Amino acid sequence: MKSLSKNILLTFSLLAFFVLNFTMAQIAQSNQASYTDLVDFFQEWRAFETPLLLEGAPDYRKETFRNRQPEFEKLRATFANIDTTGMTIAQQIDWHIVRAEMNGYDFNYRILKPWERDPAFYTSLWVARSDVPAHEGPTHHGTTELWTYSFPLSKDKRVQFLEDLAVMPALNKQAKLNLTGNAKELWIAGIRTIRNQSVELKSILNLEGVAKDKKIVKAVEAAIASTDDLVAWLEVQAKNKTGASGIGKENYTWYLQNVHLVPLTWEDEVMILKRELARAWASLKLEEHRNRNLPNLTDADSPEAYDKRADEAAKSLINFLEHNEIVTVKEYFDPALRAHLGAYVPKEKRNFFWITAHYDQRPLYTHFYHWFELARMDLEPNASEIRKGPLLYNIFDSRNEGTATAVEEMFMQAGLYDDNPRVREIVYIMIAQRAARGLGSLYAHANEMTMEEAGSIHSEYTPRGWMKTEKELLLFEQHLYMRQPGYGSSYITGKYLLEQAMMDFAKMKEIKNEPFKVGNFFDELNAIGNIPISLGNWQMSGNKEPLMKIAN
User: Is the pLDDT of residue 1 over 60?
Assistant: First the structure.
């Protein structure tokens, strides 16, 4: 009887084991099916997000958006039915990314309306690659990316270039129909941007092989003529523009939380940026006191001196990262950095960042962590279909701008400038500059300040008067931050969120009784891709709390 009982017990145990495994396999299969549905939906969503064409240019007419809105609502309903139960954390994060992008489309349709309010939206010619995954600020879908072409053009590239150029006259014509907004400052600043496009188009005529190609010359001249015509029209219309350009605190907070997935409010960001501005100034003064008996930094006074320092700075940074196990240094790090070392600029023409670089390039090159990330995106794309390319609507800003700003101070604290403590002063000046410009942009979006007044904060609260030397950068940055809500503050608030992520990661390691290694943190950060820090923190540390405050 005992033997029979044992056999029955064994039989039931084996049966339970097989049932459990079968059930788990079914759940896993179901989870994978749900994620596959998400990836398929993502591709459908991205196809929809690309506008229809009108005369070969993207169609941003009001009636076109209105006619497509039922399709968008249908997509949202389909997305709401995707079951995330049982998905891995990484898969759930991809779901949040898609949700954020759809919220971005919705916000642009309801509130931001760059095709109606923002003349700079119609900028078509981009001569250089952005240092973040996509262009900063709202950008139309039919741009000419000059930096992707090599001159003289190959046969295939010539065909593509002509197709790109043909978009401009049609889009500039459409712009005069679409631009019905009343945002005065955006309008006036946008004229300057479009006028500059005409200058850059003319420079194409001097590129190798262009002057002899009558078809390309004709296409460039047509693009110039249509751009100049748009500028003239904008200047006439500007006289009647009287409205505010900021989107207001409530809209700003909604956008921040629901599109960029930053778990903060407008008021939170003001507090954080004020705190960082005061901390940077105080730290700078303490650093200057500490270094008072050391020689002052001297600036590079010739092209030869700059180039020599640039080479030494690049070597110093790469060696520091590798030998101190800060991050796994890939073979593409050095060439990615060296493509952007810059060149000597006469003292009277230096803007803020090149002032810093002529004293020591390493603080700026540290911010060029950007280029490591773009090289990774090109050469080691994320395995996720949803993460491997640039996220829409600058959703990456807290991750990319926040990381590039955070590592300036993190690498400093880890010992990068132990060979010359005076360089630490530059780092604190850079933090103060970013806090000041972001603070100004917050007040401008709240319509409590004009862009000019926001620029005054930016200029007056940057130490040593380094933002007063060259006004083009000041104008460019405040214009961009008005165009793209949340971008101006993302450098500092992204830094704050990354520091929180490091804390949560370290705490998680401590709970598990595992050692915290800086290199592991940055390697995991790199591996998750260019996604909002709130999502990255969840995947790296398991802390979902910041996201739960806003994901409802």
Answer: no
Bridge partners of 183, per DSSP, are 243
Q: Would you say 437 and 444 are in contact if contact means Cβ atoms under 8 Å apart?
A: no
Residue from 394, 382, 489 nearest 101 by CA: 394
- Nearest CA among 366, 368, 353, 352 for reference residue 417: 366
The 3-class secondary structure across 52-112, one letter per residue, is CEECCEECCCHHHHHHHHHHHHHHHHHHHCCCCCCCCHHHHHHHHHHHHHHHHHHHHHHHH
Q: Element (H or E) spanning 145, and its range? A: strand 144-145
Q: Return the pLDDT at 470.
A: 77
> What are the tens digits of pLDDT across the range 367-415?
999 999 999 999 999 999 999 999 999 999 999 999 999 999 999 999 9
Neighbours of 323 (CB within 10 A): 9
- What is the number of other CB atoms lying within 10 angstroms of the CB of residue 231? 20
Note whether 172 and 227 are within 8 A (CB). Answer: yes
Q: Residue 434: count other Cβ atoms within 10 Å of its Cβ.
A: 27
Q: What is the pLDDT of residue 549?
A: 79
Q: What are phi and psi of 180, to 5 degrees?
A: -115, 5
Asked if residues 407 and 366 have their Cβ atoms less than 8 Å apart, the reply is yes
Contact (CB, 8 A) for 329 and 322? yes
- 440 Cβ contact list (under 8 Å, min separation 6): 449, 453, 454, 455, 456, 457, 458, 478, 488
Report the C-alpha gap between 133 and 374 in whole angstroms: 7
Under 8 Å between Cβ of 283 and 421: no
Task: Determine the Cα–Cα distance for residues 303 and 421; give it in Å rounded to an integer.
Answer: 25
Compute the distance between CA of residue 259 and CA of residue 255 in angstroms, rounded to an integer.
5
Q: What is the pLDDT of residues 246-300, one digit of tens each?
A: 999 999 999 999 999 999 999 999 999 999 999 999 999 999 999 999 999 999 9
Q: How many residues does the chain have?
A: 552
Distance separating alpha carbons of residues 49 and 68, to the nearest angstrom: 10
Helices 2-49 and 89-107 cross at an angle (nearest 10°) of 20
Q: What percent of the chain has pLDDT above 70?
A: 94
SS3 of residue 142 by DSSP: coil
